[in-house]
């Protein structure tokens, strides 16, 4: 019933790393050889027809340091298996995935499988101090989960400190065997990961900022599959960066992932149209656009018909920011490269990325997204609401005598800046350990004010490790309301353990009397990460059908660090099928 595929070369890489600490140079050479091996093998495995219905897939993630040069400067970074971006995890819907994570670095590590539902398996979700204690240096932990009812692109990333800046990769969930895509099958599929790069050590960047109470330095560039691209100041030639190789007349599917820490991005391909077919591992009604908007934590599959002649075409990833907040304004580039094009001589067709503050481009993209809502892939929008919640999301200012201005910038949900507990909340819940968290998270703002106006006089937040408790199967409507405190800002909010339906969106303050009239309860987009518009609100609905402790936070890492996070605690239902599984034996201790 279960055929097992082992990834022997991946294992061998790990062993090389472990013993290789003595001779750096030899290790580096060996690594290069091994990686090309891994790549070849992964390719073979992916093309290999999968003959059984549900299988177990084994991966080994060795978390290791590696020197990496970008923008003419070299620094050591934390990686999985020495790769940046990290390895792609391939599986089919219904598969069981086992990933052994071995921590060879000096930092505590956890890995989150962003968007994987983790039905009843919350122990393997990954956010440090929420579902698990971190994997300490020299330790390991096997993540074990099943991909139930999901197919498409997701991502994995470190979920502790700022390690996800380089510790991230794609999750590709193919449909079940013999189940086609609900769109014409592409000739080829390519993973395109957008990222952000700092020349300095990112842990130092955030630590200094936290000490000073000030916002951290912005990044030095954006990247496409790890590279700033041919137009970067340090590029050695117009051949630098990632190349998407295509053949004229064929259609390609790009699995685009925003793995940047702090920035929402626009993505464009010069001279080509993109047809969106899936976001966050949910099929959409196909629509065609020349620019996509993607927030950190979101994934978007597009079909790209290579319908131009020979030549090279510029691919761009550029930031979107429609509030007065500093961002890294560098555009990452790559090239789409037609076969039969003589590389060096071929002219490059360029494109201009949208302006930084192109709100209309962003809004028109968001408004075009609809669930496919077909017979086979219905949109099961909850129509009745058991828990109607309104959470304000934004920043605040708290006193800090040791900080530069005597105060520090913080962030909050309903005026609570979430404080990470010293031990994992899920364990505290399961073993009834008191004193770790309280279940009194406010379902509504503790005091009302004109949220998107000039704000209250007192900008101070409360600290707390508070969760909102839900009975099994409760239906939830959650209004995420941006505040204008200091400045309104777009917040990409991510909910662990669930997909939700984005039923409504608007500018200004949510009005409980009139705003719901415009809700889409028929085919709203279903996803796991949603942008709350700057100075506006977003309404989401979900069913609490997954027992456990589930993190909700802004996927701008700086805001998570500042406290824009909370958790839902969903109680067990009746019987084992509605209950959290037993904790794994190798669950790390704090
Ligand atoms: Cu992708 Cu809690 O994160």
TrEMBL record:
Catalytic activity from the UniProt record: 4 hydroquinone + O2 = 4 benzosemiquinone + 2 H2O
Keyword NAD attached: no
EC number: 1.10.3.2
Repeat among keywords: yes
A Pfam family of this chain: Cu-oxidase_2
This protein's GO CC annotations: apoplast
Membrane-traversing stretches: 35-52
The organism's place on the tree of life at top rank: Eukaryota
Class of this enzyme: oxidoreductase
Cofactor comment: Binds 4 Cu cations per monomer.
Cofactor: Cu cation
Family note: Belongs to the multicopper oxidase family.
Name of this protein: Laccase
Organism this protein belongs to: Ananas comosus
């Amino acid at each position: 019933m279960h055929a097992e595929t082992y990834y022997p070369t991946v294992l061998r890489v790990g062993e090389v790393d472990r013993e290789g600490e003595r001779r750096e140079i030899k290790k580096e050479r060996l690594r290069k050889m091994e990686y090309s091996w891994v790549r070849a093998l992964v390719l073979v495995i992916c093309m290999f027809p999968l003959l059984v219905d549900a299988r177990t897939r084994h991966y080994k993630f060795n978390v290791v340091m590696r020197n990496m040069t970008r923008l003419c400067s070299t620094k050591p970074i934390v990686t999985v298996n020495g790769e940046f971006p990290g390895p792609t995890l391939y599986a089919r819907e219904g598969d069981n995935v086992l990933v052994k994570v071995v921590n060879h670095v000096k930092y505590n590590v956890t890995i989150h499988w962003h968007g994987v539902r983790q039905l009843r398996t919350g122990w393997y979700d990954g956010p440090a101090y929420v579902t698990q204690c971190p994997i300490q240096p020299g330790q390991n932990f096997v993540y074990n989960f099943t991909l139930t009812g999901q197919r498409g692109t997701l991502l994995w990333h470190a979920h502790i400190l700022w390690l996800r800046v380089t510790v991230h990769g794609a999750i590709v969930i193919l449909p079940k065997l013999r189940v086609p895509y609900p769109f014409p099958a592409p000739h080829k599929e390519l993973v395109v990961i957008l990222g952000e790069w700092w020349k300095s050590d990112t842990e130092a960047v955030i630590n200094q900022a936290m000490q000073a109470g000030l916002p951290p330095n912005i990044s030095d560039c954006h990247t496409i599959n790890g590279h700033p691209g041919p137009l970067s100041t340090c590029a050695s030639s117009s051949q630098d960066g990632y190349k998407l190789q295509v053949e004229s007349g064929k259609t390609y599917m790009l699995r685009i992932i925003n793995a940047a820490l702090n920035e929402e991005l626009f993505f464009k391909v010069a001279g080509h149209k993109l047809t969106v077919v899936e976001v966050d591992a949910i099929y959409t009604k196909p629509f065609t656009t020349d620019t996509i908007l993607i927030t950190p934590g979101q994934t978007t599959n597009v079909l790209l018909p290579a319908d131009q002649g020979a030549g090279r075409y510029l691919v761009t990833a550029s930031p979107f920011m429609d509030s007065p907040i500093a961002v890294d304004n560098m555009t990452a580039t790559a090239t789409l490269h037609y076969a039969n094009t003589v590389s060096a001589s071929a002219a490059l067709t360029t494109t201009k990325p949208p302006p930084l503050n192109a709100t209309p481009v962003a809004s028109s993209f968001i408004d075009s997204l609809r669930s496919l809502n077909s017979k086979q892939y219905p949109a099961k929008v909850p129509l009745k609401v058991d828990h109607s919640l309104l959470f304000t999301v934004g920043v605040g200012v708290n006193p800090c005598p040791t900080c530069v201005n005597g105060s520090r910038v913080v962030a909050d949900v309903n005026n609570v800046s979430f404080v990470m507990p010293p031990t994992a909340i899920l364990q505290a819940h399961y073993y009834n350990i008191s004193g770790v968290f309280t279940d009194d998270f406010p379902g509504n703002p503790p005091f009302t004010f004109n949220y998107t106006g000039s704000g209250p006089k007192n900008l101070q937040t409360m600290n707390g490790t508070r969760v909102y408790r839900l009975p099994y199967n409760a239906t939830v409507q959650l209004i995420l309301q941006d505040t204008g405190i200091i400045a309104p800002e777009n917040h990409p909010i991510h909910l662990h353990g669930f997909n939700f339906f984005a039923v409504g969106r608007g500018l200004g303050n949510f009005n409980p009397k009139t705003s719901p009239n415009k809700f889409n309860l028929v085919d709203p987009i279903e996803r796991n990460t949603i942008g709350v518009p700057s100075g506006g609100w977003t309404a989401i609905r979900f069913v609490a059908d997954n027992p456990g402790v589930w993190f909700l936070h802004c996927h701008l890492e700086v805001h998570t660090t500042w406290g824009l996070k909370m958790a839902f605690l969903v109680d067990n239902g009746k019987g084992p099928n509605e209950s959290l599984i037993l904790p794994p034996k190798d669950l790390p201790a704090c």
